[in-house]
Amino acid sequence: MKRTLKYLLAWVALVMAVVSSGGANAQNLDTAQPLLFTADKLTHDRELGVVTASGNVEISQKERILLADTVSYSERQNIVTASGNVTLLEPSGDVLFAEHMELTGDFKDGTIRGLRIRLSDNARIAASGARRSRGVRTEMRNAVYSPCDKCASETGDPLLWQLKAVKVVHDQEKKVIEYRDAWMEFAGIPVAYTPYFSHPDPTVKRKTGFLTPRLGGSTTLGTSITTPYYIALAPNRDITITPTLTTKERLLLEGEYRELQRDQRFDARGSATYDSDNEFRGHINTSIRHDVNDSWRWGADIKRSTDDTYLRRYRLGSQNSLNTRLFAEAFRGRDYASADSYLYQGLRVSDDPGTTPIVFPMLELNHVGEPGKYGVNTSLDASLLALTRTHGTDTRRLSIKGGIGMPYFGPLGDVIELSATLRGDLYHYASHPIEGEAGGYDTGFEGRVYPLLTAGWRLPLSRRHGSSITEIMEPAVAVFVSPNMGNSSTIPNEDSIEQEFDETNLFSPNKFTGLDRVEGGTRISYGLRWGAYGAKGGSTSFFIGQRYRFRRDDSFPDASGLEDDFSDLVARVRIRPDKNLSLAYKTRIDKNDLSPRRTELNLAAGPPALNLRTNYVFFDRQEGSEFGGREEIQGQISTKLNRLWRAGFASRYNLEGEGELRSLGLNFTYECECFVFNVSLRREFYEDRDLKPNDSILFRLTFKTLGDIQTGVSRSGN
Fold first, then answer.
1. What are the residue ranges spanned by the domains of the chain?
2. For the domain 2-200, what is the CATH code?
3. What is the pLDDT of residues 141-152, one digit of tens each?
C-alpha cells in the first residue's frame, strides 16, 4: 500500500511538472510516452522544473526500465540523470550497468560512465565510457568484449579470451558489433591484432559474409585453404560458396543453395574441379520435398559423382554408393500409395554399372480396413516393379495380396491372432540366365499363387516381487500353413538374396526379405520372452526361440539357419542394472552342436568419468551372398578428466584370418561456455585404387559467438 501511494504521488508530481512547464516542452512530452516513477523518496521543485527520486528508484518508459539509487529529471531539458547502481533494461534483452547515466527522457540518447553490458546471449562488454544515439547505437571507448565466465578460475586469473579495442560500436539497427584498433588476448596474452573487426550481435542468427577459413594439408592435395562465403538472400533462403585452394591440385569449388517454404524444402549442393590431369571431376547432391496438400507430397534426391574415388579423395564423403530417387506419396485415412524410381551409382571396385539396375517405376498401394465386427480387419497390398539393366536380366513384377485377420482374447488373458492371405505374382523377364545351361538365356512370363493361413498365440504373464520388481513372462507360438511350393528358378531373385534370421523375424510368415522368394509348407515358430524390471530403471530380459518345418524346403541357402527342418536357435539377452552398465547379446546358435553362427555383443560400462563401449560382430558367410563372413570388434573409451577436459580413443579390428587393424582414433577436447578446443588423430587402413591408407591430424578451435578455426594435415601411403 505504501509503495502504491509513492507511485501515485510520483505520477501526480510529474503531471504537475508537465502542466506548469513552458508550451514547447509540454507539447513535446504530450506526444511522448510518460515516465512512470516509483521510489522510496520523491521531491518536486516547481521553480526549477526538477523531479528528484532516491532509494530503489524505478522508472519505466515504454519497454525500457531504468533502476538506480538516485535519479533526477529535468522537465525543461527533458534529461534524466541517474547515479548509483544504475541498470537499464533494453527491449532486446540487453542489460546495461553503469556508474552514471545522463539520458534523454526516452532513454535513447545520452552519455554513460563506467559501462558494463550483458548481451542477450550472456556475452559481456565493458567500457570506460559510452554515448547512446537514437536508442540503437552505442559508441564505447576503451572497451573489452568476452563471452567467457566460468572459464576463468576462481583465483582471479584473466578471462580465457577477450577482445580489446580502442573503440567499439554496437549498432542494433544494423545488428553488428564493430571493433577499431582491436586485439585478442588469450589467457591474458595478446595473440592477434586487427585495425578493424566486426561480428553480428546476438540477435542475428545468419548474416552475409566470409566464414572462418580452414587450413589443411595432405599428401594427395598438398597444403589447402578453404574460405567459405555465406550469402543470406532472405529469411528462408541462403547460398554458401566455398572455394578451396591446394598446392598439388587445381581450384575446388563447392556450392550450396538452401530454401525453406511453408510447403517446400530445397537443398542443392555440389562441387567441381579440373584436376592436375586436366580431367573434370565433381558431384551433385540435391534434395527437394514438396507438400502438395495434406494428402500428397513429392520429392527427389539426386546424388551423382563423376567417378568412384572423387568424394573420398577430396574429403567430401565416404559413401559406398550414391542413390538417386524420385518419388510421390499419398496418405488418406488408413491408405498409403507411393510411386518411386531409383538410379544407383556404386563406388566400390566390385560394382559393375552394367549390371546395376535402373528402377522405374516402383508403385505401391497399401490399404488397411477399419476393424469390423469381432475386430475383423481387411488389408490389400499391391505393387508394380520394373528393373532395367544394360547387361543382365530385365524384370517386370506385379504383385497383389489380400488378407483378413481377427484378434481374439481368451479367458486366461491369452491373445490369439488369426489371419488368411492370398497373394498372386506375375513376372516378365528378359535375358534371364537358364539354370544349368552355361551361356543360356530366356525371356518369358512366370506366375504363382501363394495362399497362407496364420494362427498366433501368446500368453503375457506378470507378477510383482515386493514394490520394486515386476516380472513378465510370455510364451508364444505361431503356425503357418501354405502349399509345399518351391521357388521357380525362372523367377529372377532381385530382393531376396540376403537373409538375416534372428529374434525379430522369427514370427514373420515369410523369412525372405523381399517378394521374389516365398516360404512354403507348414511350419511352426515358438519362443519364450522373460523380463524383470526394477522401479529405478534397472532391467534384465531374455528371449529364445526356434522354427520347425514339417517338410524340408531347399529355398534357403546353407548357413542361413533355415536350411533344415529345425532351424537354428535365436536368442537375445539384455542386462541393464543401472545407467552405468548395459549389456546386449544377440546370437544364432547351431541346433546340432550349439556353436554360435551369428553373434552381436554390445557393452557399455562406466560413468562419464570413464566409459567403455565395445561392439563385437560375427557371422558365417551364406551361400550365394555377395557379402563374405565377418568377425570384427570395435572399442571406444571416453573419459571426462575434469569439468573442462575429456578424451576418447576408438579402434576397429578385423578378427578374420590373421587379423588386421581397420582404424584407430584418438581425440582430446577442452570445452567451456566460450571456447572449444579439439584435436583428433586418426589412422584409416582403407585402400581403393588411387586411395591409400591415411593418417590425419585435425585441430579445431571454436570461439563461441565469433566462429571456429580448423586446420589439419593428412598423409597417405602404406
1. 2-200, 641-718
2. 2.60.450.10
3. 999 999 987 665
